[in-house]
Amino acid sequence: MAKLVLSTGGRIVHQCFLEQARVTVGREAGNDIVVEDPAVSRAHAAITAVGNDYILEDLHSVNGTIVNGTTVQRRILQHGDVIALGAFHLRYVDSKSSSDIELERTMLISGLALSAVNARPDGPPVDADDIRVPSARTPRARFPNGYMTWVTGPRTGQARELDRVVATFGAPGEGVAVVTRRPRGYFVTHVEGRVHPRVNGQSIGTETRELREGDVLEAGPDKLQFHRR
């Protein structure tokens, strides 16, 4: 389960699991996470559960909400993200996400090791089973392969591979959506903008929506079709 860890000066002062739908952060006593620092607004930010993701949103704070050194209005939190709150730091920890990243890294290292051995001119080919890469756990999932193609505008027909954990579509101010790659499929979520993404002509609102073969995604000026390989 994901959790938040509040620290200052390298010392942990508070931590909590994200067990509720919405967690508020601010200087006022009524917040779920109280940060007693003059740089923090009374109601500074909120973290909301959307499907399997957690969305950080700035609540019109005076000094803004800064994640990993960048000011954000709305963001899907990723394992290891650090929110700066004056002299305090609030870290988002998602052990499940961390395990999935470690799985992908292990598979990559294994593939590179095999390629390197087979590239030796003076040695026989080596089977993958002969390569041993230390791993904390046995791989239990494969990541899907997919891509998006633009169906309107100047980029019509162009394709974008969905080979990373997060892919962003749309335009700031109009509407921005992210497509996240998970072992069980691809999911789209609204990030920011006045217009929510639409899938097959229907707004997804603030919900997370799984993409299926042939689905048409509209995010800001972008209109794309999703495909699985």
Quick synopsis:
The protein has 229 residues and is mainly beta. The protein is 10% helix and 43% strand. The protein has one helix at residues 95-118; strands spanning 3-8, 11-17, 22-26, 33-34, 45-50, 53-58, 65-67, 70-72, 74-76, 82-85, 88-93, 146-150, 159-161, 166-171, 175-182, 185-192, 198-199, 202-203, 209-210, 216-219, 222-228.
Which key features would you list for this structure?
229 residues; elongated; mainly beta; 10% helix
Map the helices and strands.
Blueprint: E1 3-8, E2 11-17, E3 22-26, E4 33-34, E5 45-50, E6 53-58, E7 65-67, E8 70-72, E9 74-76, E10 82-85, E11 88-93, H1 95-118, E12 146-150, E13 159-161, E14 166-171, E15 175-182, E16 185-192, E17 198-199, E18 202-203, E19 209-210, E20 216-219, E21 222-228
Parallel strand pairs: 3-4
Antiparallel strand pairs: 1-2, 1-11, 3-5, 5-6, 6-9, 7-8, 7-10, 10-11, 12-13, 12-21, 14-15, 15-16, 16-19, 17-18, 17-20, 20-21
Structural description of this entry:
With 229 residues, the chain is mainly beta. The protein contains 1 helix and 21 strands. Strand 15 (175-182) and strand 16 form a beta hairpin. The radius of gyration is 21 Å and the shape is elongated. 21% of the residues are buried. Residues 98-140 have low confidence and may be disordered.
Strand arrangement in the largest pleated sheet: 2-1-11-10-7-8
Classify the beta-strand content into a percent band: 35-45%
Terminal CA distance reads: 31 Å
Shape: elongated
| Rg calc | 21 Å
Unreliable stretches covering 5 or more consecutive residues: 98-140
Mean pLDDT: 81
How helix-rich are the residues, as a percent range? Answer: 10-25%
Total E-strand runs: 21
Structural class: mainly beta
Question: Biggest sheet, in brief?
Answer: 6 strands, antiparallel
Helical stretch tally: 1
Order of helices and strands: EEEEEEEEEEEHEEEEEEEEEE
